[in-house]
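Our preliminary data section would be incomplete without showing what the modeling component actually yields. Below, a chain of 232 amino acids is followed by its predicted structure, encoded as tokens that our downstream tools consume directly.
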Amino acid sequence: MDRRESLKTLVMGGMASSLFLSSCVTDKESPVEEGDVIEENEGYGRTPAEEERDEELHSKTFFSEEEMATIAILSDIIIPEDDDSVAATETGVPEFIEFIVKDMPEHQIPIRGGLMWLKRESNKRFDKSFTEISEENQLEIIDHIAYPKDFEKDSPGPIFFRNVKDLVVTGYFTSEPGFKYLDYRGNTPNVWDGVPAHILEKHGMEYDQDFLKIAMDPTNRNEVMNWDNYEV
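Predicted structure:
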């Protein structure tokens, strides 16, 4: 199983629900105030206070260019492009992480500290920063911290990688390409063709055939039923 399928299994299995919450929900007071009006825009509503706060956060910069470049490399290592979907950077994951660390300051020290550790580790091994070494050397470091031995799991590298992986997965699978990859359709109606035959048989029941022809035809699902000429 490749990385993307592993992540898909993680998300669809329900484990990511707590991941999403831990990555996107804080204990700070809601910016919604009494009297705020939620505008009926396409997509989802934002109150004026929320929009103002978002604009303020977007106007600020936290990561340096080198840090953002490193985050981009890490993002595409964790979720690379394949035949089914795009790479993490194509969905705006680095920008999502930038926003999250501004929205949730408790992420700032761990992520920035991890980036510093990664740069130092790269210099120690290859005499160059992480963004300057070859892809092969980058993967050598990442494989080491992504699959650490038992005695290394609590060291800075593996802890940082787990944190950044959580943010990458959250950013990717809350994007439109991520939804499409999961085949998440939201509140979409399906076609119901009645109670299964074996259940009806078990309870000694059956549908009226005239009723089936009129009420259980999926091609008429969007039409308003007219019962004027129906007889039982």
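The CA atoms of residues 197 and 203 lie 10 Å apart. Residues 190-232 form one domain. Preliminary results of this kind motivate Aim 1 of the renewal.
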